[in-house]
Each structure stands twice: as structure tokens, then as C-alpha cells.
Design goal:
The protein has about 190 residues and is α/β, with parallel strands linked by helices. Helix content is about 40%, strand content about 20%. It contains six helices and seven strands, in the order E-E-H-E-H-E-H-E-H-E-E-H-H. It is extended. Strand 3, helix 2 and strand 4 form a beta-alpha-beta unit. The chain has a three-stranded mixed beta sheet. Strands 3-4 form a two-stranded parallel sheet.
């Protein structure tokens, strides 16, 4: 999350059975303070509650430019409970997480368009001499939104699914008889009328 690094943000919402990916944004030339200001205005403008902010493993790094690491700055601004670091894993593990989670995602068509373009363009280099693809994806413009997405997928794999809303349409617990079950439905139908 340095000045020259490109940072990509994906906004996730857990749903029953999957995830809504609401928004993607990527840019460079911003430090942690700039990103916090952008994040505050983005969630305010869209009326979203701020959940937990997950930063990449290199957010622990201090630079000559800043006295504090990005994680320290974000924690000071939002509180320790609102900020986390994504565990460092292999690129292969992140790609696997992305392949697993994408099947359960629905993306906002326009607000995720550039991020989805990056995911579609993410590719491995081909070595013509050996006639094989490399083990790691190319590091180009597409790697930034793709890295951000796969970091998010790693986090989503660890979170419990949200609880179903209480609709009030529940069966009685362990009805003793069919008469108990019938009485439950009679009461329910009378309350609807």
C-alpha cells in the first residue's frame, strides 16, 4: 500500500449461499491516509455500513515515507476490531480460493466492471522454449484487481455464512404428535387472517 503501488479495493457483502460483490476501485499514487479518506467518503456516499477492512500482508511494512505502517494507520483510524491482515499464502492457494468463491458470487455489473475486466485478463505467461505456462501469473495491470479479489476470496472462505433472517415461519420444536403440528398450523393461519 505504498505511494507507487496500485491498490485495488473490492466491497463484499455476505449473502445466504454466497456473496454480493458490490464495488471495485483501483488506483495508485495514494498513501494510507489518502485511502482512508477515500474509503470514508465512499461508504458515506453509498450509505453502506463499514464492515471489516482486510489489508494485504505487506500492510505491516513501514517505509521511509511513513512513520507508521498502513495497518497501524488504519487501526488508529478505524479501531483494531475493524481492520485485519489477510494471511500470506502462495499464489496458487489464492487462485484456488478465487476459483472456489467465484461460483458463489454475483457482481454489480457496472460498479465492478474494471475489476472484472482485470479478472478476465489475468493470465499466465507462456514459455515458448519449454512449451509450458509459468507457475505464476503475469505481473501486469490485470494482476492488481486479481490479487485484490483473490485476497478477498481467502477471507470469504474463513467467514461463517450469515444467519437466515427470522421469518416467523417455523415449525414447533419437536412436536409430540400430529395433533400438535396441526394445532401449530391452525394458530398460524388464524393469525394471518
Amino acid at each position: 500500500m505504498g505511494w507507487r503501488d496500485t491498490a485495488d479495493w473490492w466491497f463484499w457483502q455476505r449473502q445466504i449461499g454466497g456473496f454480493s460483490v458490490l464495488y471495485h476501485f483501483g488506483a495508485s499514487g495514494m498513501d494510507a491516509g489518502d485511502w482512508m479518506q477515500w474509503l470514508d467518503s465512499t461508504v458515506k456516499e453509498r450509505g453502506w455500513p463499514l464492515g471489516k477492512i482486510w489489508l494485504p500482508h505487506d500492510a505491516r511494512t513501514r517505509t521511509f515515507q511513513s512513520k507508521h505502517s498502513a495497518i497501524e494507520q488504519f487501526a488508529a483510524h478505524y479501531g483494531l476490531d475493524k481492520v485485519g491482515i489477510v494471511e500470506k499464502t502462495s499464489i496458487a492457494d489464492r487462485i484456488n480460493a478465487g476459483r472456489t468463491i467465484i461460483k458463489r458470487c454475483e457482481f454489480h455489473e457496472t460498479d465492478c466492471e474494471k475489476g472484472l475486466d482485470g479478472l478476465r485478463a489475468w493470465q499466465f505467461a507462456f514459455n515458448p522454449d519449454l512449451q509450458v505456462f509459468t507457475k505464476e501469473p503475469l505481473h501486469d495491470w490485470a494482476s492488481h484487481p486479481s490479487d485484490g479479489y483473490t485476497y478477498g476470496c481467502q477471507v470469504m472462505q474463513t467467514l461463517p455464512p450469515p444467519k437466515a433472517p427470522d421469518t416467523g415461519k417455523r415449525l414447533p420444536r419437536d412436536p409430540d404428535t400430529m395433533d400438535d403440528l396441526h394445532a401449530f398450523y391452525e394458530r398460524k393461519n388464524r393469525s394471518v387472517d
